[in-house]
Amino acid sequence: MFKPIPVAIGLRYLRAKRRNGFISFISLASILGIAIGVAALITTLAVMSGFQREIRDRMLQMAAHATVSADGFMENWQVAVTQARQDPRVAGAAPYIELPAMLQGPRAEGAFLRAVIPEEEQKVSVIGKRMIQGKLADLSPGAYNIVLGKELALWAGLGVGDKVVATVGYRATPVGAVSTVKRFTVSGIFEAGHQEFDRNLAIINFHDAQRLLRIGDAATGVRLRMHDMDQAYDVARDLALRLKSQDGFRVSDWSRENANMFRALKLEKTMMAILLSLIIAMGAFNLVSSQVMLVTDKQADIAILRTLGLTPRGVMQVFMVQGSLIGVIGTVLGVVGGIVLTLNLEHIVKFIERIFGAQLLPEDVYYVTGLPTELNPGDVTVIALIALAMAFLATIYPAWRAARIAPAEALRYE
Q1: CB 113 within 8 A of CB 165
Q2: CB 401, CB 297: distance < 8 Å
Q3: What span, in angstroms and rounded, lies between the C-alpha atoms of 344 and 370?
Q4: What is this structure's pTM?
Q5: Which residue from 126, 277, 301, 355 has the least number of CB within 10 angstroms?
Q6: Burial status of residue 296 (CB atoms within 10 A of its CB: 0-12, 13-18, 19 or more)
Q7: pLDDT tens for residues 7-27?
């Protein structure tokens, strides 16, 4: 009794039985269409966010959060290490040398050689924890040992204890350009869980690389690891300002070095959201149909309300309230269903795998045994608002038609 008249009538129309049962069926289809669309969109975006997080985390376990480099080799890399370690946001800083190489075992394979100091590398990456054979500490100076990624070792036909010849470029001599070649012993194999590293990366000792390249105490650069990877940009900017006096030093963070990949992942997620929004749009179109049929079914009621003094604007509000409530019900059901489905998706996938006796995500193909998900409250809120907006817009035309009904015409044959 305390509700405005249009709201009270709209709620009554929502609960009332239809003379035409088909109208009720279309209304139910509208609710289910919106709910299914919302649930599907929430679950899909959660899975895509989960995979994006998994790719980022696995990549940044091996890659640096930020790097300090220069044109050519850095002679005074110790300055960058000292300055970086003074920042409390930096968890570790370690020099490295990186260069392309050709590895010749039973089969020749191209790779990137990364030279590190084993005890310092533990502070900037988790490669020591990803060793499946051997230990990173086996890369002692003068031993000329090498650690290979799992896929690289497989393609080159190498195992622990095998010899491999590395060609790391050319140097000028009085008799012309001579390739720099060195035989290494495979002392370990690692599996990072990321194709870029498992297929292309080989690791040697930092001091062995300096002697091999005859560069004295120089390095390619310094790799940094943060306590919080999201602070990498701020730390890189502050460090660049402190190193401004050092000619040729460049500081870069992971978000800029991998900008294209993360931009592509974001675009893919956006396009998938747009495509799945069409499911919600289908539910909204069904809502238009059900509302138009409801207006036709209630012409006599509308005429009586008009003769009792309800304005055309009030009539329009009646059907907008009734249609919007259908959208709200569908959206709420979809949000609840999407959240429940996302939180239990891992168990559902395992159940399907047990029934069909197949692995949906083979570890040797995807490196991921489960289905990662990340439920983002911001995504859920945006999806719910989009569904509510579509439902509201779908009620405007039928409500406008109801407001235009002439009472005399509607009651002529009653």
Answers
A1: no
A2: no
A3: 12
A4: 0.73
A5: 355
A6: middle
A7: 777 667 666 555 555 566 777
